[in-house]
Amino acid sequence: MNLERIFSTNDVKSQDRFGLWREICEDRLVPMDQSRLNDQAFDAVIEGTSVGGMSFTQFGLSNLKCATNSRTIRHQNNRTDKLFLSLVLSGTVSSEQNGHSTTDRPGDLSIRDTNSPWRIEHGNRSDVLAIEIPRDRLENQLGAARHFAGLTMDGSRPVTILARSYFRNLMSVGHRLTPHAAERMTSIGIDLVAASLAERMALETPKALHGTLTVQRAKAYVATHLGDPGLDVSQVAVAVSVSLRQLQALFREHGRNVTAWIWHQRLERAAQRLSDPACLHVQLGELAHGCGFASQAHFSRRFRDRYGLSPRDYRHSALSQTAARMS
Q1: Beta bridge partners of 58
Q2: Backbone phi and psi for residue 46, each to the nearest 5 degrees, phi listed first
Q3: Which of 40, 175, 184, 242 is deepest in the core (most CB within 10 A)?
Q4: How distant is the alpha carbon of residue 293 from its chain centre?
Q5: How deeply is 296 buried, as exposed, middle or buried, from its count of CB atoms within 10 A (0-12, 13-18, 19+)?
Q6: What would the mean pLDDT of 310-314 be, rounded to a whole number?
């Protein structure tokens, strides 16, 4: 792997090891309360790299317990928009967050939420890879992090194996990718993590509630991908880890047809932008494409069917009404 050595206790005087470790560790992660589990020697190594703007940090350590709480969370500064994916490479890691107490073993994945308290213990030697992930990328698909942070994704499950292998390989070749390619590849990795989490969440959630959560995740996925003209029901089903038939059945239970709902969302977003004075400079063709329509003609036809006006006339009417209210 293409990792840079950031810190090693071998390079530091014994009396300075723990203090320097805490400083560098918390700079890479978040402020924490840290202490040794016993009086034995503390040894640790930190290595790291970055791919597509995503930070990868590998820790090798033992004899440590750490925790976040309301006090440390208040001092996070710009970290609240991040989650951390934890991948155990060797040894075991005991952790607790959101009422989930787990012992993660080699190959297991889990998510740490920077906005809620956690407790982590490294007894014997363990090596852990921590990957910084934008919070909204997972929450837009899975709902609030409290639903999945603290859950362990079993390293023997197929989707977890794919996610783990993908990130390990990405770290190896990331330095050879163009910035644009690296960003796209990290995005694919996050989608794999979301799929693994969705599979794990399904084991926790009662069937009725699981169906509701699946619909919510599907709607969130659609909302973030409306600008993709290729967005269809099959793509949404894959994103939320259910079959096409299951997704259609779940939407029917909520009184909706998935395809019709997607087009409804596209038209609503278009209407909002046509009504927004800040979007007045946006040409109709550009606006249509940004809402996922393949062509301006297709957009105009569907919009007239839905609102009874052409997009141009709708914009003129909406902006005239806005101006009248402000005068």
Answers
A1: 47, 129
A2: -125, 130
A3: 242
A4: 27
A5: middle
A6: 94
